[in-house]
Amino acid sequence: MKNVVKRLALAGCVVVGLAGCAGTTGSGGGENAPKLPAAEGDEAADPAAARQPETNERGFIVKQLGELACFGGAGKDCEGGVSFAIDKVEVDPPCAEFGSHPDGGHTLLLHFRVATGGDANVVDRVGGIINPFSFVEIGKDGVTRDTSFGMCADPSTGQLPDTYGLNQQYQGVMDLEVTDASGVIALQLMGFEEDGQRGWEWTYPAA
After folding, report:
1. Which pTM was predicted?
2. Any residues with CB less than 8 A from the CB of 11 and at least 6 apart, and which?
């Protein structure tokens, strides 16, 4: 019951946080960009090798797992912004003691790294952008579906925080429920779009 209460509280915080969000977005990774914590293992891509972003037909920047993404910064190096990467997507992992997989669907456990900069206005928006309710699933049939807040992982351990501080690094997981065991997930900017960019997308599981 405590796990359910915490999940509902998080959902309420995200909805409230979205109402006050506004600002610019970007993508890149230069020397002045916020530095991410080290990735687990050696499979994550080198953030410095990220290409100049181009949006696809859906308005999303296509990212590989482990590749740097960024928003809220100035210039191509995203100075003062927030950097993040999704290093790994686990499909239907073992659940915590009181967790469960969705009936007729699948659990995705996203492994995140996040680094914030020194702009308080940008950092205050992180929870409104990086949260389960900003994701959608694009199935192999081409249909876009909302994802749901997952009930598999233990919300008291290893999760991303509800709030973020200035010039700090974070590492944690996000629990999503989706329809398909493989496909594309997209993180929508939801009101933060700029120059036609709607967000980022990743293929799961990794090819």
Report:
1. 0.76
2. 133, 149
Other CB atoms closer than 10 Å to residue 172's CB: what's the count?
15
Can you give the pLDDT at residue 157?
82
Strand 69-71 and strand 199-204: pairing?
unpaired
Residues 113 and 39: beta-carbon distance below 8 Å: yes
Average pLDDT of the residues in 57-73: 92
Give the CATH fold of the 2-204 domain.
Immunoglobulin-like (2.60.40)
Stated as kind and residue range, the H or E segment containing 84 is strand 82-91
Q: Which two tokens stand for residue 130?
A: 């990086």
Q: What does the block give as tokens for 131?
A: 């949260």
- The DSSP bridge partners found for residue 145 are 137
Backbone angles phi, psi at 201, to 5 degrees: -140, 150
Query: How far out from the chain centre does Cα 201 lie?
Result: 10
User: What is the C-alpha to C-alpha distance for residues 4 and 60, in angstroms, rounded to an integer?
Assistant: 32
Length of the chain measured in residues? 207
Choice between 37 and 90, residue whose per-residue pLDDT is larger:
90
Q: According to the model, what pLDDT value does residue 174 have?
A: 96
Q: What are phi and psi of 9, to 5 degrees?
A: -65, -40
| Residues 66, 39: Cα–Cα separation, whole Å | 8
